[in-house]
Amino acid sequence: MTTPPDSKSDTARRFYDTTALAAEDFSFMNYGYAPRDAVPSEDAEGFCLDLYRHLLDGADLTDKRVLEVSCGRGGGAATIANDFRPSELVGVDYSENNLKLARRRFSNVPGLRFLAGRAEQLPFGSASFDAVVNVEASHLYDDLAHFLAEVLRVLRPHGQFFYADLCWANSNTEKLLCDSGFLITNQEDITASVVRALELDSDRREGIVRDHIPEAMQQDYRNWSGVKGYRAYNRFVAREWVYRIFRARRP
Asked: Which of 64, 109, 171, 207 is at 20 to 30 A from 237, Cα to Cα?
């Protein structure tokens, strides 16, 4: 009997589980955001944090119930909980090792909790949340349309969706969102700001790879993590990949 090939989600989960065991001392795993005139940040993960702040800039989440899908190590969820004061913030992730790090580091943040779950099968009832956040994760899902349908399902009427991710340049994310039933209220191509963040943050990313990842795996991690001159960075510079953010709402 032939073993079925692994799904993208399962492959990504193993990758993040392995990374969580190899390198524990950071809380964000996105490519970051930096304006063109930005200078190196005094905060080691400042550009990663700024991606969340840019995506959610001006959002009113006070006393709202918020879900972050694919919360990773919890840094973004903690930022939202501290900066935007929702009544409750639930972070869901498919990687148990990510969740262990998130719980260990952010268990003291009021109103924040973490649960295991898959993006395409969210473990919540319909119309459960006022807002859903998803940052730099959906390109690893097996069925993007199914994920968007799940987000729409768990949102209350007029609930907001804050969405950021990379995609191939010829992708039509706007159509996918509209076909799923969302009303897009704002969208922005931030590829140039992601490239600038990677340039300013490259030394830190290289240091994580060099100091924590076995030598045989370092090339793959440089390609993945956005180190300047390697695959992810090069694809953004060539605009083979573009990075977009969307704000949308359920009608």
From this structure: 207
- The overall pTM is greater than 0.85: yes
Concatenate the DSSP letters of all residues of 148-199 into one string: HHHHHHHEEEEEEEEEEEEEETT--HHHHHHHHT-EEEEEEE-HHHHHHHHH
Q: What is the block-wise mean pLDDT of the chain (251 residues), using blocks of 10 residues?
A: 64 87 90 91 92 97 98 98 97 97 96 97 98 98 97 98 98 97 98 98 96 94 97 98 98 96
Instruction: Identify whether the C-beta of residue 162 lies closer than 8 Å to the C-beta of residue 98.
Output: no
Query: What would the two tokens of residue 227 be?
Result: 């180190």
CATH code of 8-27+35-194+241-249, in short, is 3.40.50.150
Max Cα distance, the chain (Å): 57
Quick one: DSSP state of residue 33? -
Q: What angle do CA 28, 29, 30 make, to 5 degrees?
A: 105
Distance CA 164, CA 19 (A): 22
> How confident is the model at residue 3, as a pLDDT?
38
Asked if residue 124 lies in contact with residue 155, where contact means CB atoms within 8 angstroms, the answer is: no
| C-beta separation of 187 from 213 below 8 A | no
Per domain, the residue ranges of the chain are 8-27+35-194+241-249
Give the pLDDT of residue 156.
98
For residues 235, 74, 245 and 187, what is the CA-based torsion angle, rounded to 10 degrees? 180
Residue 169's identity, in one-letter code, is: A
First to last CA, the chain: 47
Q: Contact, 208 vs 156, CB < 8 A?
A: no
